[in-house]
Amino acid sequence: MQSKATTVDQYLASLPEDRRAAISAVRAVIRENLDKNYEEGIQYGMIGYYVPHKVFPAGYHCDPKQPLPFAALASQKNHMAVYLMGVYGQPEQEKWFRDAWAKTGKKLDMGKSCVRFKKLEDVALDVLGETIRRTPAKAYIAHYESVIRPPEKKKSPAAAKSKPAAKKTVAKKPAAKKTVAKKRA
User: Fold this and answer.
1) How far apart, in whole angstroms, are the C-alpha atoms of residue 111 and residue 23?
2) Among 38, 76, 142, 173, which is most buried by a count of CB atoms within 10 Å?
3) Residue 134: which domain range?
4) Is residue 112 included in any domain, yes or no?
5) pLDDT category, 135, cuts 50, 70, 90?
6) 45 backbone φψ class: left, alpha, beta (φ>0; ψ -120 to 50)
7) How many domains does the chain have?
C-alpha cells in the first residue's frame, strides 16, 4: 500500500496511532544503526533508506533516477513491514539474520526481503539494529555491483590475439503438423 506522502513526517502523520508508534520505534532503531552514507526519505511510497546519488551516482539499475534502495519501512493493509535489501541475495547475511532472530524466541514472518509484523512486540529490535549496522554503504555498494555487473573474465594473451569465435546458430525445429480429424457424415 503506497502512501502519497512526500516526507517522512507526512507518512507518519497519516498512520493510525498504534501503527505510528510501532513504525516510529522501528525507525528509531534503524536510524541509530544506519551508516552515515545512507539517507532517509520517501521512496516507492514508503519510508526508505538508500544510498544517495552523491555516494553512488549510478543509482538503482531498475530506475537510475532513484537512489540505490537499502531498507524500507511501511504500513501495509494487513501488517507492517521492514524491507532489508542488505539481507536479500546474500545467503551468509540471511543465515546470520534468521539464526539471530530465532535465538530471540520471536516468530519470524519473512519473505525474500521483508519482515512482516502486526505489533512492535513481534520485532526483534536488537537483531534488526545489528542487521542495519552490519552493512555499511560501501560494503553494500560493493556487493550490489558484484551482482549487477559481474567482473569480466580475463582472456589469456593467446586468446586475445586470436579471431573472435563465430556466433553459434541454433537450428529451429520444424513446426509440428496439426492433424485434423475428418468429420463423418
Assistant:
1) 19
2) 38
3) 8-148
4) yes
5) very high
6) left
7) 1
Single pTM value for the model = 0.77
Any residues with CB less than 8 A from the CB of 106 and at least 6 apart, and which?
Answer: 122, 123, 124
Q: How far is Cα 106 from Cα 10, in angstroms, rounded to an integer?
A: 31
C-alpha 37 chain-centroid distance: 17
How would you list the strands of the sheet with 39-43, edge to edge? 39-43, 46-51, 68-75, 80-84, 114-117
CA dihedral 34, 29, 48, 86 (to 10 degrees): 60
Q: Is residue 154 part of a domain?
A: no
The SS3 of residue 30 is helix
Instruction: Say what the pLDDT of residue 90 is.
Output: 87
**What's 75's domain CATH number?**
3.90.1150.200
The amino acid occupying position 121 is E
Judge whether 138 and 109 are in contact, CB under 8 Å.
no
The alpha-helical segments, DSSP class H, found in 60-124 are 91-104
- The answer as to whether 171 is a domain residue is no
The grid cell for 162 is 586470436
Gap between the Cα atoms of 69 and 60, Å rounded:
7
pLDDT digits (tens, 9 = 90+) for 76-109: 999 999 999 989 888 899 999 999 999 999 999 9
Residue 136 corresponds to which cell in the numbers above?
555499511
In three-state secondary structure terms, 98 is helix
